[in-house]
Amino acid sequence: MKFSWRNILLWSLPILVVSFFLWQGLFAPIANENNTNVANSRMTYGRFLEYIEMGWVKKVDLYENGHTAIIEAIGPELGNRIQKIRVELPVSAPELISKLKKNQIDLDAHPAKNNTAIWNLIGNLFFPLLLIISLALLFRRSNSATGGPGQAMSFGKSKALFQIEAKTGIVFDDVAGIDEAKEEFEEIVTFLKKPEYFTAVGAKIPRGILLIGPPGTGKTLLAKAIAGEANVPFFSISGSEFVEMFVGVGASRVRDLFKKAKENAPCIIFIDEIDAVGRQRGTGVGGGNDEREQTLNQLLTEMDGFEGNTGIIVVAATNRADILDSALLRPGRFDRQVNVDIPDFKGRLDILNVHAKNKKIDPNVSLSIIARRTPGFSGADLANLLNEAAILTARGRKNQITLQEVDKAIDRIIAGMEGTALIDSKSKRLIAYHEVGHAIIGTLLEDHENVQKVTLIPRGQARGLTWFTPSEDQSLISRSQIKARIMGALGGRATEQIVFGDSEITTGASNDLQQVTSMARQMVTRFGMSDIGPFSLENEDTNPFLGRGMGNLNEYSDEIAVKIDTQIKIIVEECHQKTLKIIKNNRVIIDKLVDVLIEKETIDGQEFRNIIKQYTEVPQKI
C-alpha cells in the first residue's frame, strides 16, 4: 500500500469514531470512579449499622454527596486490624448521622472533585474537534488534487500516465520488422530534439500521427520507443479512459490532458485504442452516445481548434481505422497515417533476432527457416512462438531450444494443444485417407501451396491435420489459385467417397465445405470470376455498429441472386469432378501414403513429395 497523508486520514477516521464511543461508554465512567476506589473491600449498609452498634467503626468519610462512605473499622472479624471498607449508602438515611454522633465516630464529608468535567470536556469536545479537522484536511487534499470543490472523486481529471523523461527501457533498436513506420517516428524524434533543421526551411511539426494495423504488429511498442528516444514529457492514456457514464466527464478529461500538455510542451501524447472514443458520430442503433460524442468533439477542438497546440504531438493507435470519424483523420489533426502491417520475411527474421537475444537456442536452429515457416505471423505471434518453445524446452528438462520445440510451438499456436494419438484402427485409417486426400491434391496442383506436413496427431478440435506453407504475398490471388484451394479443400471428402463409397462419407469435411462455399461465393460476388460478369455484387465492409452482416442489404435483384447460386454450384461441381478424377488416377499412391502415415503418424512435406515422385510427376496444372 502506498502511504500518504490521504491514506493515513482515511484509516484514522473510523478509528477516531470508534475511540470516541469507547471513551464515552467505558473509559469516562471508569475515570469518575477512580476517586472512590480506595477501599480494599465492600460492606452492606445493614452490616455497617451493626459495626456502629458494636463500636468497631472509628472513622467515616463521605463521598459523592453522601452516597458512598469509606469507613475505618477494627474488630475481631477484621483480625483486630484497622481496615478501610466501602459502603454504598441509601438515598435517605437521617438516622445515620445521629448514630455516628452518638457513638462519637469521627465524621468527615468530602466534596466531589471537578475531574469529571475535565474528562467530559475531553470526551465531548476533543474527539469531535479532531474528527472535524481530519475531515477538513481530507477534503482539502481531495480538492487540491481535483482542481476545486465538488470534484472530490476526481471524475473530471485526466488519468494519463505522465513522465518527464519516459524510461520505458525500449528504444528504436528494440523495434524490428516495421522499418517504414520506424523511419517516420525517427523523423519526429529528430524534430523534437533539433527543430531548427526543419523550421529553417519552413516545415511545421505534425499535429498527430495515427498508427493503423492489425493487433500484435507493434503499435504500442513503437510508441514506447518514441518515449524512450525523444527525452521529452510523455503522456500515455487509453481511449476508453475518456469515457464515463456521466455526461461531460470525458470532455473534461480531454481538456485537462491538453492543459497539462501545454504546460509541458514540447511533449508527446499517446492515445492507445483511440477507436473507443473516436468512432463515427451519429451512427448506431437508437442514436449516438452523448458522452462519447462530446468527448470526441472536445478532442477535435483541442487538436485543431481556434486555439493552437504548438509543440504537442498526438500519437494514436488503432486496429479499426474504418470506424473512425472522418473529422479526426483530416490533415491538421492526424497529418500522418502510418500503416503497421504484418511483417514480411525480412521483418520476421529481424523480430526473431530481437526476441532470441535472451534465449538459449541450439546453434543448429536457423531463425531464417522459422521465419519462412511463419508467414502471416505478427510480432506478438513470433514473440509468443519463442516463448512457447522455451516453455516446452524447460518442461523437457533441456538446456537449449531445438527445432523440435519450435515445431511443436508453431503447431500449438496455430491448431491448439496436442491431443492423445488415435488407437482405433478403423477411425485412424479413415482420417489418414482424408488427410492424404488434402495433401495429394495440394502437391499435384501447381497453383496450390506446398505441403508442409501431414499428421494424425489430434490438435484442438481437429483429429488430423494437413499443413500447407502459404505463399509470401497473399494480397493478389489468381483465379487458378482460388480454384486450386477449393480442390485442395475438397480432397479429403473426395478421397472418402472414392475409397469408402458414398454411404461411408463422414462429417469430417464440414469445415472444408464451409471454406469451399465461401471461396466460390467470393469468386462470383466480389472478384467477378464467373459468367455473370465483372461485377461486385456484395460489399466487403460491414457496419461496425451493427452485428456482423446485419447491415449488408443485397443490392441486386432476385434474378441475379439465382444466377449467383447457379454459378457457385457450377464452380464447386467443376472442382469436385476434377478432384475425384485426380484421386482415382492416384489411388495406388494414396494407399501407399496412408500406410506410411499410419505407421509414422507424421510425414513432412519433403518426404511426402519424394514418395509421390516414385509414381508420377509433380506438379501439374488444373
UniProtKB/TrEMBL annotation:
Cofactor annotation remark: Binds 1 zinc ion per subunit.
UniProt signal peptide: 1-19
Location within or outside the cell: Membrane; Plastid, Chloroplast thylakoid membrane
Matching InterPro entries: AAA+_ATPase, AAA_lid_3, ATPase_AAA_core, ATPase_AAA_CS, FtsH, P-loop_NTPase, Pept_M41_FtsH_extracell, Peptidase_M41
Cofactor(s) listed in the protein's UniProt record: Zn(2+)
First-tier enzyme category under EC: hydrolase
Gene Ontology molecular functions: ATP binding; ATP hydrolysis activity; ATP-dependent peptidase activity; metalloendopeptidase activity; zinc ion binding
Main subcellular location: membrane
A GO BP annotation: cell division
Residues binding Zn(2+): H434, H438, D512
Domain called AAA+ ATPase: residue spans: 205-344
Subunit text: Homohexamer.
UniProt name for this protein: ATP-dependent zinc metalloprotease FtsH
Classification of source organism: Eukaryota, Rhodophyta, Florideophyceae, Rhodymeniophycidae, Ceramiales
Gene: ftsH
